[in-house]
Amino acid sequence: MRAGIPEHGRIPRYYAAKTELLALIEELGEGAPLPAERELAERYGVSRVTLRQAVGELVLEGRLIRRHGSRTVVAPPKLLQPLALVSYTEGMRAQGIEPGRTVITAEPMPADAQLAEDLGLEPGGEVVHLERVLLADGERVGLESSYLPRERFPELLGEFDASGSLYAFLREKLGVVFGEAEERIETVLATPREALLIGTNPATPMILLHRVSWTPEGEPIERVRSLYRGDRFSFATRLRARG
Q1: Which ranges carry the HTH gntR-type domain (predicted)?
Q2: Was domain 13-74 assigned CATH 1.10.10.10?
Q3: Would the pLDDT of 149 be above 60?
Q4: CA 199/CA 207 separation, integer angstroms
């Protein structure tokens, strides 16, 4: 494939229309409505069914947004979250975006075998579970579940405002120093519950991050599962050669 064109040179009609739409999106700019479906189908010489397929892909990719009761509009640029030991709050504020969280769960729970192993606990040891919907300028964009050893962080349930930054509380109030983390990334579809909490279509691709972090001395701090809308987020990191 070169620029989307297969080696045999035959381009699906929906893809040709999608390429035309991408050029139109760049011309229109963020928030602008697309012309009517009939007009676009005639302009690009395709059926309305073919045009809908092209538009549907661009919606899934986060280039267009379908709004209830109005036309499809050009989406804003994707939010960029660094793959680094920084909090969601820091990542959003670096882009001029106001972060927020809606608390779903803040409670103790027993750790299963895998969670206990990740956090250096005996199976059944208590952890604090924080489940929060992530907001960006008031828009729901993700769902985060954090698990921390309760015995090491007894202040969490009594003193921590779960609508705020967990990393800021750990650093500033408890003196926790993050040393390193291991992160795994995959693409998934949201469960019906997750889609409802985030307010997204269950067919929208999601980006799932699993992270375990430790102090510089190797003591586990947290395990976190972060689910982000694939149509609203991209991730970046800087790589260096070993040695």
Answers
A1: 9-77
A2: yes
A3: yes
A4: 15
